[in-house]
Amino acid sequence: MRVVNASLLIHLARVSLLDLLRMPGLDVPVVVPFIVFQEVLRGARHDPSVGLVEQAARDWLTIVPVCPPHPGIDLERIDAGEVAVLTVALANPGATVVLDDLAARGEADRLGIPKIGTLRLLLDAKQLGIIPSILTPLDRLREMGMRLSDSVYREVLTQAEE
């Protein structure tokens, strides 16, 4: 199971790569806590790409109810959506969280939850031949508001051999 956070859904939808969450050969459910889905939908008036997330929710993206926060999560470090993502993952052993926020990634590490982010999805997609290059999606993500330092940008391109 992959449990996905809002920013990642928004970023991938903006560059029309939402399907990377369910790459070929990876037969695992992709789930989003209801509170995260609501967070994404709140941006619908300002961001037409939200419609792609709604469409995925009618097709392959599963919306799951919000549970009380897992007692091991440090609620001071992360927002409610990230708490929900980690709580769902902890309730489903073997789940991987898909998030980009640094504090949330640190909390996942502290809790022993496997994690991936947008950049790893792009690198994996290129390696599998799903996308020919990560340069264009990476540039579009930056243009669309994804915070990405120049050093991380260069490192990702180096890893992609671009």
Written account of the structure:
There is one protein chain. With 162 residues, this protein is an alpha/beta fold. The chain has a single domain, classed as Rossmann fold (3-Layer(aba) Sandwich), CATH 3.40.50. It has helices at residues 6-14, 34-41, 50-59, 80-91, 102-111, 118-127, 135-143, 150-159, and strands at residues 2-4, 30-33, 61-64, 96-98, 115-116. β1, α1 (6-14) and β2 form a beta-alpha-beta unit. The radius of gyration is 15 Å and the shape is globular. The termini are far apart.
Structural descriptors:
162 residues, alpha/beta, single chain, Rossmann fold, 5-stranded parallel sheet, globular
SSE diagram, text form:
Blueprint lengths: L1 E3 L1 H9 L15 E4 H8 L8 H10 L1 E4 L15 H12 L4 E3 L3 H10 L3 E2 L1 H10 L7 H9 L6 H10 L3
Parallel strand pairs: 1-2, 1-4, 2-3, 4-5
Helix pairs in contact: 1-2, 1-3, 4-5
Gross geometry: globular
Which CATH class is shown? Alpha Beta
Query: What is the overall number of helices?
Result: 8
Low-confidence stretches: none
Q: Roughly what fraction of the amino acids lie in strands?
A: 5-15%
How many domain regions?
A: 1
Specify the biggest β-sheet: 5 strands, parallel
Second rung of CATH, namely the architecture = 3-Layer(aba) Sandwich
**What's the overall average pLDDT, rounded?**
92
- The count of β-strands is 5
Rg result: 15 Å
| CATH topology tier name | Rossmann fold
Task: Record the strand order, biggest sheet.
Answer: 3-2-1-4-5
